[in-house]
Give the backbone structure.
Amino acid sequence: MTTLKSKLQEDLTTAIKARDELRSATLRLTLAAITKEEVAGKVARELSDDEVLKVITKEAKKRREAADAFAQGGRTEQAARETAEGEVLAGYLPKQLSDDELTAIVTQAVEEARAAGAEGPRAMGAVMKIVNPKVAGLAEGGRVAAVVKRLLAG
């Protein structure tokens, strides 16, 4: 069974041979981030596919935030580059939930939390506790929190 990390390494080799500068640069940086994570603790270790996904998700988020920052600063070329790198990484992530799918999951969680007696500001934490395991890796935290706030304010 090939791990996600070995798939990234194979894709990097393919990208280098194809002289795909964007893809190879993006994968190089991502593999460096994975390696950094592997040696971060007291003992060097191999990351699981789930942990590698977390690193890729973090890297993709960095690209989105950088793209936004560059776009706001009027630096369209850099913004386009960051967006393109983000798209390369998105190819390795599970498909993100649509707004409708996310709203349905959160709506159910709000009902569960209310049934368990969660009210007011405390309800936010209770709902997030129910939602997070269901949407892990499928929707970004900020997006989830925004939907939870909207439905609780409902």
About this structure: The CA atoms of residues 74 and 97 lie 30 Å apart. The chain has seven helices and no strands.
